[in-house]
Write a structure and sequence with these properties.
The protein is built from 22 helices and 14 strands. It is an alpha/beta fold. The chain folds into 5 domains: about 70 residues; about 80 residues, Signal recognition particle alu RNA binding heterodimer, srp9/1 (2-Layer Sandwich); about 180 residues, 3-Layer(aba) Sandwich (Rossmann fold), CATH 3.40.50; about 70 residues, Orthogonal Bundle (Helicase, Ruva Protein, domain 3); about 180 residues, Methane Monooxygenase Hydroxylase, Chain G, domain 1 (Up-down Bundle). Strands 6-8-9-10-7-11 form a 6-stranded mixed β-sheet. It has a 5-stranded mixed β-sheet with strand order 1-4-3-2-5, with helices on both faces. The radius of gyration is 43 Å and the shape is elongated.
């Protein structure tokens, strides 16, 4: 529990104690008042249990002469009557009577019937007690509120969530930030790192740039998939620049109260302008920078007013000199165009997924404090992990270290690294399957993928075939690309479709049509998706080089022939898939012997790595096949 939380709890307890004391004082004065009338109340209540009389019955007793004495209390609101009647056994008894308001003739009647009566006045209260009972509780409550309001400012400076300071900037401020991250700790994104090194150089040696009339960029926008190191770059520049640093998330500006977001933007830039030169880092800026006009409420949307204020502060009539805004997002496509123009974000730095050399550099950075065994090759690990982000690679080595600890090892070996990679790619390993018909069917399915993929010219090599369930898959076949593929040819796409269909085709050839299972449902979805993209996006069909869908799979219709083009798209997709199925079937039929041999080995070992699989394939001279 932090210091601010403890202080808030103490203030709450203080208010509760103040209210409790006030209530106790009020009750105490009430008790004193009651005690002042104790003698009266006691006399009234002494015989209250024996008899009580209504006012009308009391008047009847008065007329019949049965009343002997009357004592009036509480300004003649209550009376103790001493009466004797046949109903009471002709013995005098004290009877309590409540006198209604407006009975002004009672005294006159008592005089008329010569009744002995006496009036007992209410004792006067002490002036001190009266003031205490009426003023003490409100004063204590007001004092508690003043104390709470005076201390709320201190809390909001750290938390930014106080109800009394909604318009204050929630940004965290560091005069000389020490994040522990330097540019030496960043690898795999050299282009982005060099851009930030230039900004740091400008902040440290501005005269070098102003000499030739250069101006420092007002804003730098980091764009890239999650986990590629955008926030890590911000931490590095905060540590290297040695200037005041403000960090805030885009979602912290957006509130349900109108005007709060814009007020927070104004407050942030006001504070930043007082500490120039400085850096303002806005993480996930798409939360506040989304394109205007797309939300509910149009131009009156609270988020859009917050964006308008941000645009004005970054490049409006009043110029903010020395304030560099660094934004980060993975959704640059939804940002407002006015936010992206030069003068606001002068530079857009793409932080993409690292290539093979970049992955190797990232692995070396994260392996500095980890005892790796000699059998661990970071080069092989970098080759095996295409598509991994920097966060994925850091997680891979961390999982390896956890596994080494679990197995009570002092160093991280190749087994832990491979197991960690398998966990991240395929999921947590399940229990091995029993030797049943399903296990044999899955073995043929996975070997079908491996055989077809290894015999195609334009497909990656087999890395591992396993029957150990991982995630939702009962078996897996992994392929290791020789290099990162940024451009994919038509033959490579066809090879992917043929290989993906190899598992289902193997089931069909070995066990027959009635034994085809649902295990290939995910394969069929991948095949259909690749074939459809070849037709609608890549122009790799007889329809021609025409883009019929955009990146969001939204159709681009041509004229009034929408239905006709949709039919042609479906026909072309079917042609591609059917052709690939025929090629896969031919490969499975021509290599039935080697398939049976590898399946027997796989059923015994449950896992075959790429080298073992290649050794089995070398026993037969099989020429590669073009897709």
């Amino acid at each position: 529990m932090d210091r601010n939380t403890i202080q808030k709890i103490l203030i709450g307890l203080f208010l509760v104690v103040c209210i409790f004391i006030g209530l106790r004082v009020s009750n105490f004065t009430g008790v004193i008042d009651n005690n002042s009338n104790t003698s009266l109340k006691t006399e009234i209540s002494t015989n209250s249990s024996s008899s009580k009389m209504t006012y009308g019955r009391f008047l009847e007793y008065l007329e019949l002469g049965w009343v002997k004495q009357v004592d009036l209390y509480d300004n003649s609101r209550n009376a103790m009557v001493l009466a004797s009647s046949p109903e009471l056994g002709n013995r005098p008894q004290s009877i309590r009577v409540e006198i209604p308001v407006g009975a002004s003739q009672l005294i006159q009647k008592l005089k008329e019937y010569n009744i002995d009566f006496d009036a007992h006045p209410i004792p006067r209260k002490s002036l001190f007690l009266t003031i205490a009972s009426n003023l003490l509780l409100p004063l204590i409550f007001i004092a508690g509120l003043i104390f709470f309001f005076q201390n709320s400012d201190n809390f909001s400076q750290n938390s930014g969530s106080s109800a009394m300071n909604l318009g204050k900037s929630p940004a965290r401020f560091d005069q000389r930030p020490d994040t522990g991250i330097s540019f030496d700790d960043i690898a795999g994104i050299d282009e982005a790192k060099s851009e930030f090194e230039e900004i740091v150089s400008f902040l440290k040696e501005p005269e070098r740039y102003t000499l030739v009339g250069a101006k420092i960029p007002k804003g730098v926008l980091l764009v890239g998939p999650p986990g590629t190191g955008k926030t890590l770059l911000a931490k590095a520049i905060a540590n290297e620049a040695s200037v005041p640093f403000y960090s805030v998330a885009g979602s912290e500006f957006v509130e349900m109260f109108i005007g709060i977001g814009a007020a927070r933007i104004r407050d942030l830039f006001k504070k930043a302008s007082e500490n120039t030169p400085c850096i303002v880092f806005i993480d996930e800026i798409d939360a506040v920078g989304r394109e205007r006009g797309a939300g509910i409420g149009g131009g009156n949307d609270e988020r859009e007013q917050t964006l308008n204020q941000l645009l004005t502060e970054m490049d409006g009539f009043k110029e903010n000199k020395g304030v560099i805004v660094v934004g980060a997002t993975n959704r640059v496509d939804i940002l407002d165009a006015a936010l992206l123009r030069p003068g606001r974000f002068d530079r857009q730095i793409t932080v993409g997924l690292p290539d093979r050399l970049g992955r190797l550099g990232i692995l070396k950075v994260h392996a500095r404090n980890k005892p790796l065994d000699q059998d661990v090759s970071l080069v092989q690990l970098a080759n095996r992990t295409p598509g991994f982000s920097g966060a994925d690679l850091a997680n891979l080595l961390n999982e390896s270290a956890i596994l080494a600890t679990r197995y009570k090892k002092n160093t991280i070996t190749k087994n832990e690294v491979n197991e960690a990679a398998d966990r991240i790619i395929g999921g947590i390993a399940g229990s091995p399957m029993e030797d049943t018909k399903n296990k044999k069917l899955i073995a043929y399915h996975e070997v079908g993928h491996a055989i077809v993929g290894s015999l195609l010219e334009n497909h990656d090599n087999v890395e591992k075939v396993t029957l150990i369930p991982r995630g939702g898959a009962k078996g897996l076949t992994w392929f290791a690309p020789e290099e990162d593929q940024t451009l994919v040819s038509r033959s490579e796409l066809l090879a992917r479709i043929i290989t993906t269909l190899g598992g289902r085709v193997a089931e069909k050839v070995i066990f027959g049509d009635p034994e085809i299972t649902t295990g290939a449902s995910n394969d069929l979805q991948q095949v259909t998706n690749i074939a459809r993209q070849m037709v609608t996006r890549y122009g790799m069909s007889s329809i021609g080089p025409i883009a019929l869908e955009d990146n969001n799979n939204e159709q681009i219709f041509l004229g009034g022939e929408n239905d006709a083009i949709s039919d042609r798209i479906d026909n072309e997709v079917c042609k591609i898939v059917n052709y690939c199925e025929q090629v896969a079937t031919k490969i499975i039929l021509d290599n039935r012997v080697i398939i049976d041999l590898i399946v027997e080995k796989l059923l015994d070992a449950e896992t075959l790595n790429g080298d073992d699989f290649c050794d089995l394939m070398k026993q037969y001279t099989i020429p590669p096949i073009k897709a």
